[in-house]
Amino acid sequence: MFTAAHERPFKGPCVLLFLLVFAVPDWASGAPGTDTPEVLQQQGIRRLNAYKRHFYETGDQSTLLPELEKAATELTTSYSGFLARKNLAAAALTAIKLGDIERAQAVVRPCDGCKVVFAKSHYDRAAEYYARAFELAGQAGHSGYQADALGKLAYTDGLGRGNLSTGIEEIQRAIQIAGKTGNKDDLAKALDTAAMLEIQRNDFNAAEEYLARILAIKAEVSDELELYYVYAEQGEIYLGLGMKCLYDTHFDNCYEAFKRARSGYEQAATIAQSLGYKALAEVARDSIQNNVDRQEAVVRGRERSLKNASSSGLFHPKEAKDVLVTQNFASGANPQARALIATLLKEDPTLTLSPDPRGAYVQGMLFQVDGKSDEALDSYLHAVHLLEQDRRKLHDEQARGAFLEDKIEIYYAPALQLLQRRRYSEAFRLLESSRSRAMADLLQSRSPGLSTQKEREFLAESEKLKTETALEQQKLFDLMLEQKASQAAKINKAQARVQQLQEEDAALQARITQEAPRLNELLVSDPISLAEAQRSAAEGNYDLLYYLVLEHAIILWHIGGTDVQVFNVFLPRTELANKVTAFRDNLTAPAHEQNAAFDPQLSRELFFYLIQPVLRFVKQRHLVIVPHEALSALPFQALQDPATNAFLGEQFQISYAPSATILGKLKQKNNLAGARLLALANPDINDSVTEVRAIGQLFPGQSKVAWQQLAGKAQLKAWISGYNVVHLSVHGEFNRVDPLLSRVQLAPSENDDGWLTATEMFGLPLAPDSVVVLSACESGLVEATHANEVLGIVRALLYAGANNMVLSSWEVKSNATAIWMQTFYKEARRNSLSESSRLAILAVKRDPKFQHPYYWAPFLLIGK
After folding, report:
1. Does this model's pTM top 0.85?
2. Going by C-beta distance under 8 Å and a sequence separation of 6 or more, which residues neighbour residue 571?
């Protein structure tokens, strides 16, 4: 991160370890001729500030080393003196400065060309100083020193010691204290630290909002260096957003992000130059050249490669043999890659020394390109161990999911090494450790005996507030970036709304702490083992198809009850994403063009890549798909086998799961015989009433069907717990900006607009192991993040208690939907849900008007 290059107050040279002497010195009892604690403190601070200025101006870490050592000695002595005199405020300030010196020693380069050394123990000692300073400042009633000490403790805990959740909790308190001091410099520093911590856990919206709050008070901030950090961190945020195109394909968005990153760093450089801090200005300019320009070049190269590959015909197979399928997973010695890594290490020698997982990961890369595969595997596994430790320290599921967004490949590198050695069980465990872990943790806390309805309602409200706050934060930051006087009213409105939401969230968290404290104790789930996944497949009579999308290939697993096969299928991530997008466009074309024809080419090509390599190993008629990244938007039932012209959904029963671990938590449901049905219809939708009334007749004496008028949220919540099958035939829509605001439409009331969002669905009082069917447009769409989290209605309903779901992947025609749904329920009284889904497809396809997959392929069965 950029913060590693501009550590506050500085990243200093190698200094001696200073021992605190707490014995009372001679002058404390009045001995003449000795410097007083005040004089020693002033001298120490002057030397410290001189060192910082020199470092900011020149980047030199060694010339003033003796002065820094003297500062530490003087401050150590003055600290003891102030304690002896019970001057607690002065002792607090001195402890803060001693903490600064300790933090400066965490990364050490004593001279140009000298070896860089990392010493994490200095962060531990810095934390002790800051904690002591906070305590002393509190006793002295000095809120300014309290805010400073706690802000620096938050930085040290969060970024130096890897305790992000602790750091974020501390900085929230520091902001509250700083806001009451009346000193805008105190507040700006606290807000800036908060922004850095949020950047570290990839919550860019929250980071943007903190920076926007600093910009809003910049006229009252006397320390101009704070604005340098604001714009530098703005550059950091947009660099992170631009780098998403290393695995995403929304290139225009990424190029705009790179443009904004460049602007942020340029503004930071201008501020540093005006202050005479040439070295800091150079750090910002280097960030443009070495980070922004380089990453943008990589993204542009990726876009060119995608276009070239698409036009070459290389990835348009006509036969199965046209697809390159191997069982080689890990590369060996690579001199070219070695040279590239060596260049990066020359620019930043701390890469392999970092105490976080990236240090071990980069070391593993070095071993791998040198052909030392055993050493590479050891380093990669150590990186995973460190990553898991850091992840466990995060206390909410949103933070856990976002934290892995730019670190997820750390799991993949050792998994590929293990696959190369045919150590499938260990590789599978690593991949499951990377797959929807935050959701799995959430479901673990939802287990019987570990969750109450009140806790689920609290979670729903918390998710709602967090989501709405994130949207307002993004809006506010965009307005602040425009820097137009005409936007002042909108900025004030957005700031007020963010503050209101944050106050509501703080009040809610206080209630949760008091009334539902277990909700703050997010559990850590253990990923399912390969043996358990096989046992589940054998007991459930299904074959598991498990996908991992990498930059240049798809790793395809077939997991059966008695055997396992794994293949490396050569298809670049960008090419796959392009095919899936084009295929979905063709599938949904009839929504815009009544006589649109189905083009089977992409369907068959995707079949060759995704199904053909393992088809000969499949023994059961039921396939459970665990997709990944772009594949989460792919309806596998619409893939066509070129050998038979049959669609996968005709040949096989198909269901889906976010991960094998989550699948393992769901129960096998044989059929719906004896089920209790709640079915609600929107009378304004053609065929909706006919649909739910027909379904209700299949459950005589065991159903409640409401169709005369649309039910509201209160009615749904009052009825829902009494039924284990819930069917909603209503309007729905997917929110692409924030999938947790995806929603279905119920009747409005005096207090709300009637839209039931995914965030609210977390709190639905579903009966245990329910079946939920949303006959609503786009209800099954999700955002599959790079961190392998699935965001959308699926996530919320799983937590609420759904065991199986039927959701729609696109806007559907009500008449075809009615056939699908009625057939599904009729067959589900005696057949499994997966077989009923297959028979429903066949029923729709029998109508000549509905041959196009648009009519029969949108419905996704989640579960076993």
Report:
1. no
2. 315, 323, 553, 554, 609
